[in-house]
Amino acid sequence: MTYLQLQGIHKSFGAFTALDNIDLSIERGEFVCFLGPSGCGKTTLLRIVAGLETQTSGRIVQAGRDISVLPPAQRDYGIMFQSYALFPNLTVAQNVGYGLVNRREGKTQITTRVDELLALVGLPGSGGKYPAQMSGGQQQRIALARALATSPGLLLLDEPLSALDATVRVHLRNEIRALQRQLGVTTIMVTHDQEEALSVADRIVVMNHGVIEQVGTPMQVYREPASHFVANFVGKVNRLKAVAEGGHWFRCGDKRLQCAAGGDSDFRPGREVSLYLRPEDRVVGQLHDDDPMRCAGTVRHIEFLGGNCLAEVDVDGMPGQPLQLQYSLNQMDEFGVHEGAAVQFSLRADRLRVFPAAAA
Fold this sequence. Notes:
6-stranded mixed β-sheet, 10 helices
């Protein structure tokens, strides 16, 4: 069921390496997000797939066809840019049907297809208007309809929501995901927004400095980061400096913390490591006195996030390494969490991730 294969994709701009030996397989009907900071190579990789950039070396195979050197017009995709790139002098209907006109489709067929697509994206009856008469969210829908007009096998989305305000962005990303599932079109979206990638993708490709750091489902990338970079970049995380004691035990200040056995958590004694733990990876009720991961501390600061809060806690025995702990509003009341309050909690050994300190 592999639909798109990227094999050894390398891209250099003079002495600068933008992409270094990228290998990736995408299944038919998958929604894949390229996620990473600015300059990581994600947009360059998308443009290479589209034929808008030429790779220095490597091969691209789409639906069994080698498209490595084909011009954009001979590749089977629809693309939606960050700026939408709508023609201001053309009506909405003319914008949506632009690709069909270039394919010399019949006028009746074009009209029928355009009406169908405008209804699909929630803009029926808008064909006679001009882009300037439409809101940003509506223009985004028009650009999406245009990208889908030729029924492409591959849909490419280059940061399509970044120009919208937060509320509209959340609403439209859900619409795009629902539409993608309905149509079953293989989709690649470039984004630097972690929440966006986590909420819509079947799989996330985390990129940094022109290489792939990790490929996995949103849950895998969030819960099981493969590197320091992924742990730091995706979601909020606590990072603690510690020293391995062997047997999955680590000393952090005067505290001994245990990591669940498995993976690469067993380091030789004396090795400096970094421990990563999400703010929600703690237990705040039904604590046991014999729990080796039980901690106590004092709340230094509280960050209000709506339904949840992040409490910054100075942990007894761990000077200079405060922890951010997540509490719901109900838990804030139940456990008396406020600035200056003493709190008790237990850290989850099964959620602790360990990496060599030298790799940071």
